[in-house]
């Protein structure tokens, strides 16, 4: 097994877990928050999917994110530039995804494209290890590090937050 094989397995596990976590929630449950300054599931899901979309399309491929190219912000009636990083807590909590089914169609598009992208890498990650990319606000790093740190490790922490919010609502936490 090489690093790409590992990243593919973990990314698929992350996507399956995120999908399963929200599969039986109603709109109110997507927007449930705990006291304090944490975010709701809808915001966390938006942040996770937009982060992968931006990293895959914009940073790794130099293309417009699916969000922009397919006008998902218009379809979902959400701000065109929202991604999640650095959003003030009040704005994050005010964000509302009215059509969660439609949002999950967007998530599915991003996830399937990202999984397909990783499946095309035949050198075990050699080129991505040598290629330096800039990830705001983290700075420059090897592309392979950006995938592992941002799109897997970081997003698994958000899956943990989602699991906590599920448990607080009397639902099963981490699905896998």
What does this structure look like?
Helix 1 runs antiparallel to helix 7 (100-119), helix 1 runs parallel beside helix 9 (143-168) and helix 3 packs antiparallel against helix 9 (143-168). The mean pLDDT is 94. The protein has 176 residues and is mostly helical. The chain has 9 helices and 2 strands. It has a two-stranded antiparallel ribbon. The chain is globular. It has a single domain (3-168), classed as dinb family like domain (Four Helix Bundle (Hemerythrin (Met), subunit A)). Helices cover 63% and strands 5% of the residues. The chain starts with a helix and ends in an 8-residue tail after the last helix.
Uncertain runs are none
Largest beta sheet: what is the strand line-up? 1-2
DSSP strand tally? 2
Stated plainly, the CATH topology is called Four Helix Bundle (Hemerythrin (Met), subunit A)
Strand content: under 5%
Specify the CATH homologous superfamily: dinb family like domain
Spatial separation of the terminal alpha carbons: 22 Å
Spatial extent as radius of gyration: 16 Å
Main β-sheet description: 2 strands, antiparallel
Mean pLDDT: 94
**DSSP helix count?**
9
Order of helices and strands: HHHHHHHHEEH
Indicate the CATH architecture. Up-down Bundle
Computed structural class: mainly alpha
In the CATH scheme, the class would be Mainly Alpha
The geometry reads as: globular
Helix content: 55-70%
Tell me the count of domains.
1
């Amino acid at each position: 097994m090489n690093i790409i094989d590992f990243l593919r397995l973990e990314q698929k596990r992350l996507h399956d877990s995120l999908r399963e976590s929200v599969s039986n929630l109603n709109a109110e449950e997507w927007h449930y928050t705990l006291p304090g300054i944490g975010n709701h599931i809808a915001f966390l899901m938006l942040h996770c999917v937009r982060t992968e979309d931006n990293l895959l399309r914009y940073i790794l491929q130099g293309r417009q994110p699916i969000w922009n190219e397919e006008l998902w912000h218009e379809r979902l009636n959400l701000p065109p530039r929202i991604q999640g990083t650095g959003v003030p807590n009040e704005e994050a909590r005010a964000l509302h995804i009215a059509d969660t089914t439609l949002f999950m169609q967007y998530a599915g598009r991003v996830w399937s494209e990202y999984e397909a992208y990783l499946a095309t890498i035949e050198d075990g990650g050699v080129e991505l290890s040598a290629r330096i990319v800039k990830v705001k606000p983290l700075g420059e790093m090897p592309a392979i590090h950006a995938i592992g740190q941002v799109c897997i490790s970081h997003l698994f922490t958000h899956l943990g937050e989602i699991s906590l919010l599920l448990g607080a609502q009397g639902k099963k936490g981490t699905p896998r």
